[in-house]
Design brief:
This protein is mainly β and about 140 residues long. It has one domain: Sandwich (Immunoglobulin-like). Helix content is about 0%, strand content about 50%. It is built from no helices and 10 strands. The strands form 2 sheets. Strands 1, 3, 4, 6, 7 and 8 form a 6-stranded mixed β-sheet that branches. Strands 5-2-10-9 form a 4-stranded antiparallel β-sheet, with no helix packed on it. A hairpin with a 7-residue loop joins strand 9 and strand 10. It is elongated, with a radius of gyration of 15 Å.
Length: about 140
């Protein structure tokens, strides 16, 4: 089942990671299934903005509340990648098994058939500098 969101919806995004390096910032990137040039980008910063890295941790939960742009192209978006910038400036792409299986649809604001079921996705345990343990996206509670 593909979750549906409207343009202008605010989302609750939760990303659970293990990381052996400090994180300055990162991005969760979704790509439109019919137009590889169209993306949705959810960005986040480490501790206290960019002044301090998010220190290495056995388990970190990052919570974001991005809003889908009012003019975002309608259609189905699939997870493309999640990457992180370390405080030394290196970029780390976290491996995500089955990443294209995590999808959602942006629908017209008049669509009243939305289904807001939020089943967190288990991304598995691949050994890497940064391991994605889970990703959850749902409509923000008003």
């Amino acid at each position: 089942m593909v979750e549906k969101f409207r343009n202008g919806d605010t989302l609750d995004v939760e990303l659970v990671i293990r990381h052996e390096v400090g994180i300055r910032d990162g991005y969760i990137i979704f790509v439109h299934e019919d137009d590889e040039e169209t993306h949705l980008l959810f960005g986040f910063q480490g501790a206290e903005g960019k002044d301090k890295p998010l220190p290495a941790s056995e388990r970190t939960t990052l919570s974001l509340t991005p809003t889908i742009d009012e003019d975002q192209q309608l259609g189905v978006y699939a997870l493309d990648r999640i990457n992180f910038k370390t405080f030394d400036g290196s970029t780390v792409d976290a491996p995500i098994p089955g990443r294209r299986l995590y999808r959602f649809e942006v629908v017209d604001v008049s669509d009243d058939s939305l289904d807001f079921v939020d089943d967190p996705i288990d991304m598995g345990g691949i050994e890497s500098q940064i391991v994605i343990e889970g990703l959850s996206i749902s409509a923000a509670k008003e």
